[in-house]
Amino acid sequence: MINKKLVSSFILISSAALPILSIAAEDIVLSAPNLHIRTLAASCAACHGSNGNALAGNAILAGMDKNYFTAQMLAFKNGDKPATVMHRHAKGLQVDEINQLAEYFSAQEPTLATSPKTQKLQANHD
Amino acid sequence: MTKSKPDKAKQNSIDNSRRDFIKTAGITSLLISSYPFISGCAANSQKPTIGRVIVIGGGYAGATAAKYIRMWSANSIDVVVIEKSSQFVSCPLSNLVLGGSKSINDLTFGYDLLQKNHGVQWVNDEVTAIDVATKKVTMKRGEISYDRLIIAPGVDFVYDTLPNLRSTAAQEKIPHAWKAGWQTVSLRKQLESMPNGGSFVMSIPKEPYRCPPGPYERACQVASYFKKHKPNSKVIVLDANPEITSKKGLFTKVFAEEYAGIIDYRPNNVVLEVDIANKIIKTDFETVSADVMNIIPPQRAGKPAQMAGLNNIDKRWCEVDFLTYESKLAPNIHVIGDSVSAALPKSAHMATSQARVCASAIVELMQHRTPDPSPVFANTCYSYVDDKQAMHVANVYRYDATKKIMRSAEGGGVSLKPSELEGHYAGAWATNIWSDVLT
Question: B422, B431, B434: which to substitute to probe chain A, counting the most A Cβ within 10 Å?
């Protein structure tokens, strides 16, 4: 599902009269830096869920206060905050990217993520 | 690996009538709707679309690309996934089935939410040919045209040096279990039936192969099971590589400390011959007898990538442009995941990261715009050393515009030691990536 807030924060609608749901892709305008941050942010999903909506007790980044996000990430980056794995990611990012990720995640609407249901492995599977 | 087949006669009659219908309908969207399992919004939507992307393969890479193209195009691009299996079975965590702390049914999911939530169209079929010139994919039961094609087939196994392991019958005796499914279950059953004091012998192919730390995690999982239930048994690891290929220091320590007297690691050992009946493995140095054997074969890009002739690197892997994942050989065809030739680990997280760069690029290219010129993404890979403790390797990768490759950024590395806390995070990783990929 398209997160309306995400859409409205990154889409410029060519005609103001167009309702959100009838947006065609030609109307979507994403500037290069936002494309960059959107893809980078999405690679956090393995641990923090789609658009930052994490499950299993991991930090929910969607809607997180941007100053808090930046402070945490810089503390990981500088080694001031102990971590199992987050210092590896924070050190690999540029400060500018951390600031833009903070903006990006703070603009995401928190929604309840779902887990796919487990199934019994079917006989005809490999 | 006993499989009960569905009602074959009934299935064939459906297939035949469908095939006839497809012949008449030609290559249009009608063809897609002739598949009864298709859900999605293409049929009922008045919305303008800017083209069709076909994704071959519904694994971590393909499913992710399908979802993110729909999301990032505001549903303006039709996406059709062609997948031969009707279920998603996760390779990550499947070694825990061998250790006994997970069941294969904990790792098996349907594609229903991905289809329903994002209007991804789905064809449960197998690709038989790809026509690069006419932009057409042929399946067992029909054909379909594309504007852009994503090939995400995972790996194919190479049996050139061990031809007697190619058959299904041979793999029932000696499962590779390197794609999660019934072979994983079969290998677990063999371990359960093995007497205390027996030998489990596994082999690792030369790099590159799917999931670099996976074989060493597997050795730990089997050793963990033996330590608790069959303490006189051995895990013999025949590694074709000169040393442990991933998390080397950590695995070396775990082998020596946690599994001293159980895991016997032997590097530089290429398997030359397997005697299936007598359970004997010959390498260039030695002859090893086994009670349970697990030969992980060498690998190459999956079959659909070979059909399109895209495996140009060592005749195994596909060369791509890392800004778009478009093949260097064929326009409008993108390759993502394990089939890509890159100095990047062939992991599930990596497959999803590549998928999102590719998805973003395709959304831009189909609107005649420029993709992100400097992609950056993360990879986190956990390995469980027993039923509770795990350890990571994690890196950020950044595009190097001069060399036109993805390079690891500063700060990457591995855990200091395995821990239960990281075991918890590894479980959370799986929960979140499954949610992202499949819902």
Answer: B431
Residues 6+ apart with CB under 8 A from B350: B337, B344, B379
Q: Which chain B residue has its CA at the smallest distance from A46's CA?
A: B433
How does pLDDT run across A72-111, given as a tens digit for each residue? 999 999 999 999 999 999 999 999 999 999 999 999 999 9
Look at residue B48 in the predicted model and tell me its pLDDT.
72
CB B238 within 8 A of CB B201: yes
pLDDT band at residue A8 using 50, 70 and 90 as cut-offs: very low
Chain A residues touching residue B398 (CB < 8 angstroms):
92
Residue ranges of E strands in B100-160: 108-109, 121-123, 127-131, 136-139, 142-145, 148-151, 155-157
Would you tell me which residues 78-117 of chain A have a C-beta closer than 8 angstroms to some C-beta of chain B? Answer: 84-85, 87-93, 97, 113-117
- Which one of B108, B182, B377 has the shortest CB-CB distance to A120? B108
Q: What is the chain A residue with the closest CA to B408?
A: A92
Asked if residue B257 lies in contact with residue B161, where contact means CB atoms within 8 angstroms, the answer is no
For B105, phi and psi rounded to 5 degrees? -70, -15
B409 close to B375: Cβ distance less than 8 angstroms:
no
Q: What is the ipTM of this complex?
A: 0.88
Contact (Cβ atoms closer than 8 angstroms) between residue B277 and residue B165 = no
Residues of chain B found within 8 Å of residue A35, distances taken between Cβ atoms: 360, 364, 371-372
Quick check: B431 and A7 CB within 8 A? Answer: no
Distance set, CA B79 to CA A35, B70, B106, B307, B375 (Å): 20, 7, 28, 21, 23
Give the H or E element holding residue B274.
strand B271-275
d(CA B426, CA A83): 14
Q: Please answer yes or no on whether A57 and B71 come within 8 Å at the CB atom.
A: no
Taking a C-beta distance cutoff of 8 angstroms, is the pair B120, B306 a contact? no
Q: Is B268 left (phi over 0), alpha (psi -120 to 50) or beta?
A: left
Q: Which residue has the higher pLDDT, B212 or B39?
A: B212
Helix crossing, B420-438 with B348-365: angle to 10°?
30
Chain Cα centroid distance, residue B60: 7
Distance CA B6, CA B11 (A): 8
Residue B87 and residue A125: Cβ atoms within 8 Å? yes
